[in-house]
Amino acid sequence: MIDLAILGLLTEQELHGYELKKRLGELLPGRASISFGSLYPALSRLETQGAVKAVEERTAVPSSPMSGSLAGELAAFRARVRESGLRASTGRGKKVYGITDLGRERLIELLSSPDVSDDREFTLRVAFARHLSDGARLELFERRRTELLGRRDDLRRRTATGQDTYLGALRERDTENIVNDLAWLDRLIAGERHALIQEEQQ
Amino acid sequence: MIDLAILGLLTEQELHGYELKKRLGELLPGRASISFGSLYPALSRLETQGAVKAVEERTAVPSSPMSGSLAGELAAFRARVRESGLRASTGRGKKVYGITDLGRERLIELLSSPDVSDDREFTLRVAFARHLSDGARLELFERRRTELLGRRDDLRRRTATGQDTYLGALRERDTENIVNDLAWLDRLIAGERHALIQEEQQ
DNA sequence: TGTCGTTACATCGAATCGATACATCGACTG
DNA sequence: CAGTCGATGTATCGATTCGATGTAACGACA
To answer: If we measure between CA atoms, which residue out of B26, B106, B93, B30 comes closest to residue B56?
Structure first.
């Protein structure tokens, strides 16, 4: 899950930890994000595995006063960071990560996993769906559709005899949300098919 | 979260671990449940704290062949377990838990927490909402309403400039789901108000 | 008779969370 | 112009939770 998030975000842009967390918070629905306590260890793990690499060395606070040349280095570093899309970055000690070829392979693997039962993971896979081939993307959506149909039927089976008011209300909400998700998915799938046909006709 | 789940389920019925997990799986939306790796430690913790207690001692497999009287004991135990609502229970070695007065207090505390940002936790709190007073229940729903309104506005603010197709699709889905949840909540709240007015008129 | 699926408890290592520590910087405030 | 506050940033700690695995009894079925 967290690997998918990191690799997906880094494919599009080189980023440092803090920024990674912020973007992920915007990607995931609700108030969900990931904690620093999982992010930093995950980055280390991925770096060890060679899936990501630190692009810019962290600028340590020099213990001795900066010489002119060092200050120049720092300015150059900041300029590079700014270029790479981190305008809001103030503060010192950033460690900017980028993805490697191995990381890109790993991302495709993660995006192609047959398991579509985890909601948060599926959300991330849609967010990075443009990195999949047309076929793989369509397959992802259709597998998800099957999953949701299964859930809907499970819910229907359980919504049998007269329950507690609030229990019943919850089932109602869940059913509505699944129906909604299915309609949304069908629109996505229709869009994909349309795109595929247009491609073939060229 | 897990404490809330355990205490809520045990308030309604004495249960053992395996059954607890199954029921929780039915309560939570999607394929979500909790793992044994968190359930059993949590039960131990709650037992130490005095919030739950083992109602029936586990029936250990006797190392020596059962005497007639022991077999009788076992049968009696099974009958008691069956009475307490565990019809499907076969197999040996169950440890049935019940809630204590302290546990009931703790449940009310958890149900009354002001934080309604966690989706799973909110679902559980609705599931056990009948254990709250009319006022507290209404407050829970209204706080959740405010939370969802905040999320909706956050989403709107972010759904600004032309993004990636799939990113846009995700935002669409999230917005729809929130709107759906809000409508559902409003129905719940209306129901509560109606009930309150009827009470006053008596 | 064997062996498969279900019921059931338990534990382990790894992943993750939530809190906290520490430090820098910009902006607002008295 | 010093002082504080909030945002930015990296990092680690203990507790929680997960996912996998082990063990075992039992019913069903071949």
So the answer is: B93
